[in-house]
Amino acid sequence: MKKWPQLLSVFTLGLFLGLAIMALYQMQTLDRLYGIQSQLTTELLDKEIKLERLNENIKKQSLIIVKDLDILVNYNGNPLVKDEIKKNIQFYLSDLVGRDLDSIDGVMIHKILQQRIIGIEDKHFKLLVDYIIISQKISVSVSAKLLE
């Protein structure tokens, strides 16, 4: 008769350990899915803003206009942090989409991003501009370094 409580306690302990391991595994999956959702939401908002500005510019005049931003972030840490850095850069440069190509100043873009310190998740990152290519698609590459 003494074996039943012991077997029940071992079974309960195994059940709780199994639930804990399953929860940890699902947490990784949820983090990955949250990152993908965040990235897709950012891209969708960016595309909607671009579409509005392009439609406004097409109605006004037929000039060569900036149609897209391509941002490359060189950071070897957490991909969610990398996405947040990219969102910050898109926030700073989103006004360039829909503008006349002749009115874009590359020095201004460089000054906006070079040596900029941004805060994400209680950490500070310093941005260094690698290159800027200005055409109908503005391409910007930055390196992000964690400040200690």
UniProtKB/TrEMBL annotation:
Pfam families: YtrI_sporulation. Residues 75-145 form the Sporulation membrane protein YtrI C-terminal domain. InterPro entries: YtrI_C. This is Sporulation membrane protein YtrI C-terminal domain-containing protein.
